Amino acid sequence: MIFAVLALAQSLALALPPAVAVSGAAPGAPLPAATELRRIAAPEARQGAAGGHGSVYAVGDHEVARYDAASARRVAHWSGDPVIYPHLNSCELDGSELVCAASNYPQVPMDSQVLWFDAANLKPLRSHALGHGHGSLTWFVRHEGSWWACYANYDGKGGEPGRDHRATTLVRMNDRFEETGLWTFPETVLSRMAPRSSSGGSWGKDGLLYVTGHDLPEIYAVRVPRQGGVLEHVATIAMPTGGQAIGWAPDEPRVIWSIERKTLEMVASRVPPVKSGRKP
User: Fold this and answer.
1) Domains delineated in the chain
2) Using CB atoms within 10 A of its CB, is residue 162 exposed (0-12), middle (13-18) or buried (19+)?
3) Confidence at residue 27, expressed as pLDDT on a 0 to 100 scale
4) Which of 54, 116, 117, 221 could staple 235 via S-S, CB 3.0–4.6 A?
């Protein structure tokens, strides 16, 4: 069913160059790039970053660290057993808790779980096993009373037979982790992520979902369609860093945190406003 819907979306999609705003499938006016504001060195910054109130979190393969955003000083750290936590992918602040997506990448069959930590001291609170599902869980975020989970699929390493990057899937869940909605990504986004998948995702206050791939220095703004099973590509925005997990700073307007893997730094950037083009 997923591939049937995806094939239809691919046949209708238009090629999208970098840093172009779109409304539906029609190209719009070019957008300015995100503007870099500051960097914080963090040896844990190998998978992504998450914004907090006066804090920023660095996410590594088996660890999470909390840094004071003003002083750049590390104030809390958690490190897990690599056998139990082979691949931590991303985290996001949810109230007083930090919610993190984890998987067994690059092992197959794919297996995923969600971890919760105290956002202040990073003490582990609880976990929930999602098991073998639509792919490898790369991000898990809260929005409008639901959980939103992204399942990555890959063409090569870490992929399963019969599924490639085109099977990357967004799933909405209730508090019992029951699926209440499912969407695939448009070809204009998938083609930029290939041969890998989405590594980061975070809901903006404007109601758009901002996602990143694994490598390219771009953020893709998408929205859930009123009808249909394919997300709508609203805009592509160039950013200073390449892919990986991202997170909005809750106390700074339009500021998003990402990482520079090669230098092990967390980077704050201001993202330009995006007009969705959707009428109320």
Assistant:
1) 2-260 (2.40.128.630)
2) exposed
3) 34
4) 221
